[in-house]
Amino acid sequence: MIRVWKTTLKLRMVIGFIVIFIFAVLLISRAFDLQIIEGGRLSKLADEQFHASVYFMPERGNIYSSNGSILAASVNVPGIAVDPLMVRHKLKNAERLSMTTGVGYEKIIKILTENIQFAWIKRRVTRQTAKNVEKLGIAGVVIVKQPVRYYPNGTLLAHVLGFVGINDNGLSGIEYRYNKFLKGNKRALDVLQDGLGQYIFIRGFGLKKATHGDNIYLTINKQLQFITQYYLDKEAKAAGSGGAFAILMDPNTGAILAMADYPAFNPNYYWKYSARHWRNRAVTDDFEPGSTMKPFIISGALQDGIIKPDTIINGHHGAYYIDGITVHDVGGWFGRLTINQLIEYSCNVCACQVGMKMGKQRVWRWLKRWGMLSMPHAGLLGENAGIDRNVNQWSEVGPCEEAFGQGAAVNGLQEITALSAIANGGYLMKPYIIKKIVNPYGKVIFRAKPEEIRKVINSKTDGEIKYMMRLVVKGGTGQYSKLIDFRVSGKTGTGQIDNPKTGKYYKNKYTASFMAFVPYRHPVLAMLVVQQKPSKISYYGGAVSAPVVRSVFKTALNILNIYPGEKAYRKQSKAGNGAKAVFKTSGSGKGSKKAAENTKSKGLNNKNFLRNDSEIMPDLKGDTIYEALEVLRKYRFDVKIGGSGYLYYQSIKPGINVYNDRAVFLKFRPDEYSYPDLSDAHKTAKKIKK
Amino acid sequence: MSRIKPYFIVLVIILTILGIFYVWTTMESIKLGYDITKLNDIKSKLEHKHKKLLIKKTALSSPSRIYGIAEKMGFIYPKEGEIIIVHD
Question: What ipTM is given for this predicted complex?
C-alpha cells in the first residue's frame, strides 16, 4: 500500500515538475519575445503613451501707453472646430449645432459634407456657447482655444497700433513693425502623462514663460491721445475733410505724446473698414505743406544773414510776376512788410523774394538741415523721407516756390520734428514712439533715450523766429489758436494739392495745416494738425486746423498740471516737473552743451544741471520695482520700497539734484494705471501765491 | 547556519524598508507631480482671468467711454478762465 502511494507521489511530482517546466518555458519564451524580439517596438509604444510633446503657444506681448495702461492685449477665446469625417447623423447634428452656435444650418451642412479633417464652424464664441456645444457631445466637434487680440480702448490710437490677423501675426502698425518682439516663440516640451492623459510635472514646465512675447511701452499719453483724437475728429467732421491727422510731441525730447488720424477705425473689427481707414496719414502721407514751411526757410535766411527781422520786402499788393509764373497772396494784398510781418500775415510774395535771394543751393541745404528730406526713424510703420526733385532739376523759380511750401512734399513727422527744434532752442531731436521694450521676465531690453540729431539754428535766430510765430497767433493768421491763459506760437499753412493725372494743382482742393507750440517761452507741447481737402467752413489752416490745436492745448495743459502764468511754470520747472527734458539730454559733449542752454533758457540753476547724470533724480513713474532698481543702481542713495506693482510716487521729484547720500522712498501699487499726483498741488498753489 | 540567519533577517528587513521607502517616494513624487500640474493649471487660469479682467477694466475706463458717460450726465470741460487755482 505504501509502495503504491510512493509510486503515485513520484508520478505526481514528475507531472508537477513537467507542468511547471512547461509554464516556465512559456513564461521565459514570452519574456524573451517581449523583451528581446518585440522589446524595441513595445518600448517605443510605451514611450509614446507616457511621454507627450506639449506645445506651449506663446502669448503675444501687450502694448502699453507711457503710464502702463493696456492698449493691446491677447487672451485665449474658445472656437468651435470639427472633423467632418468623424461626424455621424450629419443632418441632425448640423441642426443642433446651428441652434447652439447661431451659424446658419446650410453653412454647417456644407462644412460637414466636405472631405477634410479640420474646419472651423465658428472661430470666436462665448464661454457659454462653448459649454453648450460640449454638452451636445457630438463626436468630431471640438472646442479649440486660440488667442484673440483685444484693443480695449476701441478706436484710440488705432492707426498707430495697427491690428493682428487670425494667425496671431501683426498686419499693420506697431503690431506689424514689432511682430518679432511681440509674437514670442512656440516651444515644445516633453512631459510625462498617465493613462488618462493627465500631465505629470517635470522641470521643463518652468520654461513656459520664456516663450511669451515682449511687452512694448509707447511714449503715448493715453489722455492726451484721447483729447487729440476727439478734437481732430470733431473739427474734421465739421470741416468736411477727406482725411486729417494730428501729432502732439514733447519738443524737448522728441517723444510722440499723441498721434491721431481721421477717419478713425476700430482695430477690434478692422475687417469692417476699408484700407483707406487703416492708413496712418501722419506718417505715410506726403503733402506740400504751404506756408508752414515759411518759418524754416526764413530762419535759414536769418541765420545766414541774408535778411533781418526788420528787413523790408515789397508785397507787390498780392501778385508778383517772376520768370513766367505769378505768385499770389490769398486773403491779403500787402504793400511793404518787415520779415516779422511776412510770417505774421503769411505773405507768399515776400517769402518768394526771400527764397530767390537765398538761391537754390541754400534753400535746398536748409530744407535738409531741418530734416525735411530725411527718414524720421521714429519707429513707425510706413515712414518715408518726403519727396522733392533734386536741386539741380529745380526750375529757376524753385527757391521761390519752396519758400512758401510748394514744391517739396513732406510728411507730418518731419514737420513736427522741425517745429520741435524751433520750440526747444534749435535742436533737431530724433522723434520716437517706443519708450521701452520689456521681456516676459520684466527685464527692460530696450529703453529709448532722447537723441539730438543736430543743432539747426543758433539761439538768436531761434528767438527771432519764435517771436515771429508768436505774432502769428497774437494778431496774424493763427488767431483761432489763441488761449487766454497761455501764450501760443504757431504758423498756419494752406497748401495746394497736386493732381497726379494732370501734373497741375487742383483749383479747389487744399491741405489746411497749423503747427504750434506752448507755452511760448518754455514749450512743453508742440503740435501739428493737417486736414486734407476740407470742403465746408473754410480751407484755410488758420480756420479749420488752428481750433483743434487750441482745444487740445487748453485741455492738455490742464492734464499735465501746467498752471497759467509762465512764472508759475518756471517755479514748477525748478520743482522738477519741467526739468525732465533737461535731465534726459544732459551728459557730456553735445548733450551737455544743449542741457546748459536749455537750462539757461528755462531760468534754472545752470551749475546744478551741468553735474553728471547720476546726481539728477530720474522720472520713474510707471516703472516696476525691477526697472526702478535697475535705473537707480548707479545712484548713491538708499532705496526704500513700499507696495508692489507700478511706481506712482517717488520722494525725490524728477529732475532734482541730489548732492549727498540720502534715501529715496518709492511707492508702488498693483494697479497699472497712473493717476494724477495731487500730493503737491497745494505746494504749487503756494508757490504761485508767492 | 545559525550565525548567518540573524544577519539575513536584518538584511531582508532593511531591504524591505528600503523597498517600501522607494515605492513611497516614487508615489509621493508622482502625487506631487499631479499637484504641481494642477496648480500650474490653476495659475494659468488665474493669470488668464486676471488679464481678462484687466482688459475689461481698461475697456470700462477708456477715455471715450468715460467722456460719453460724463457728457450724458451733463459734465463738460471747464472753459478758459473757469479754472481757479485755490490758494492755501
Answer: 0.77
